[in-house]
Amino acid sequence: MKIVKKVDDVRKEVKKARKEGKTIGFVPTMGALHNGHLSLIKASISECAFTVVSIFVNPIQFNDPADYKKYPRDNERDINLLKKEDVDLLFIPETEEMYKERAETYVEVRGLSDVLEGKFRPGHFKGVCTVVCKLFNIVQPDKAYFGWKDAQQLIVIRKMVKDLNIPVEIVGCPTIRENDGLAASSRNVFIKEDDREKALSLYNSLKKIEDMVLKEGIKDTSILLEEGKSIIAKYTDVELQYLEIVDFENLSPVRKIESKVLVLGAIKLPYVRLIDNIIINV
Ligand code: AMP
Fold first, then answer.
1. Is CATH 3.40.50.20 the right assignment for the domain spanning 2-173?
2. CA of 150 to the centre of ligand 1 (A)
């Protein structure tokens, strides 16, 4: 695995691989790697002859500076993990390499970015789309791998790629969970053992809704959401930021489940914010 820090070096390596007729797979990450990231990397390696991984904690997607500051970072551990996989190229730029001069150009997907996460993290998706667009221009991959764990992000990026005619195929990969069902996340390292049950309340609420739909045939989303919210409400220091059932394609709220929907939520423990979702296909 080659490790580079400069944009020009990424270009050089990718050009070489392309000359050899290799398809380029790309997995953008913010590091603090876990099994969720590794599943994306494995998918790229299985489908593409040359896999590029990036690690970059993108400052412009953090609406809360304290969250940016305390975001877990451990490049040495990440590099060791990646060496065990068949990754061809790792791009770890410094912030100055990605944002060399004051940037005046941003990429914004309106509408889809303004709901759900967007309401609680203003500017977040603008930061995500801008950096992902930059990374796509740097790497120029044939395929890029994203997790359904961040369902809204995946949908927003697909829209950006479509609207801007970016020549890349976006591949969505299933959410990887820890043994008890908690979605793998870099932020899970912050969860205190005693708070595990609280952290799991969102997943338990999503599972309850799924059971009610698939086993009991309940389709009315107001009934489903009321029940889901009651599971989280049991924990007084868990703040439910949102729990919604929305259309799988356009993220608009659904009253009665008649097609594929996404059930998404965000909770806040006093010291960590967690998101999760499930897809229900009736
Ligand atoms: P991050 O480092 O959090 O920006 O995530 C990088 C990529 O990994 C994104 O496409 C995420 O959706 C994906 N990802 C994060 N957690 C998981 C997970 N538990 N399962 C699958 N993909 C994930």
1. no
2. 7
Class in CATH terms, 186-276: alpha beta
User: Within 6 Å (CB) of ligand 1, which residues are found?
Assistant: 29-30, 36-37, 39-40, 146-147, 149-150, 173, 175-176, 183-186
Which residues are catalytically annotated?
37
Residue burial 218-239, b: 16+ Cβ < 10 Å; e: rest = ebebeebbeebeebbeebeebe
Strands 239-247 and 261-269: antiparallel
Q: How many CB atoms lie within 10 A of CB 1?
A: 14
Q: Which helix (H) or strand (E) holds 53?
A: strand 50-55
The model's pTM: 0.98
Ligand 1 centroid to Cα of residue 147, in Å, is 5
The answer to whether the beta carbons of residues 230 and 241 sit under 8 Å apart is no
What is the average pLDDT across 243-266? 97
Atom number in ligand 1 closest to CA 186: 3
Question: Nearest Cα to 142, choosing from 173, 167, 163, 164?
Answer: 167
pLDDT tens digits for 77-130? 999 999 999 999 999 999 999 998 888 999 999 999 999 999 999 999 999 999
| Residue 24 backbone phi and psi in degrees, to 5 | -105, 120
Helix (H) or strand (E) holding 202: helix 201-214
Residue 177 alpha carbon, nearest atom of ligand 1:
19
Q: How many residues does the chain have?
A: 282
The answer to whether 124 and 63 are in contact (CB under 8 A) is yes
Domain segments of the chain as ranges: 2-173, 186-276
Find out whether 152 and 251 touch, Cβ atoms under 8 Å.
Answer: yes
Residue 15, sorted as left (phi over 0), alpha (psi -120 to 50) or beta, turns out to be alpha
- If you search the block for the tokens 């970016």, which residue do you land on? 166
Which residue spans within 58-117 are E strands per DSSP?
Answer: 89-91
